[in-house]
Amino acid sequence: MESYFLDWANLLLRWVHVITAIAWIGSSFYFVFLDSSLTPPEDEDLKKQGVSGELWAVHGGGFYHPVKFAVSPPQLPKHLHWFFWESYSTWISGFALFTVSYLYSASTYLIDKSRMDWAPATAIMVALGFFVVFWLLYDAICRIFGQRKNGDAIVGALVLVLVCVASWLACHWFAGRAAFLLVGAMIATSMSANVFFWIIPGQRTVISQIKAGQPVDPIHGKRGKQRSVHNTYFTLPVLFAMLSNHYSFTWSHPQNWLVLILMMFAGAAIRQFFVMRHGYKLGRNGNPLPYALVGVAVIVGAIVWMRPAPVATPVVNAPVSGAASADKNGASSQNDFKAVQAVLEQRCYMCHGEQVQMKNLRLDSPDSVKQHAQAIYQQAVVQKLMPMNNATGITDAERALIGKWFEAGAATGP
Question: What is the largest CA-CA distance in the chain?
Answer without folding.
Answer: 99
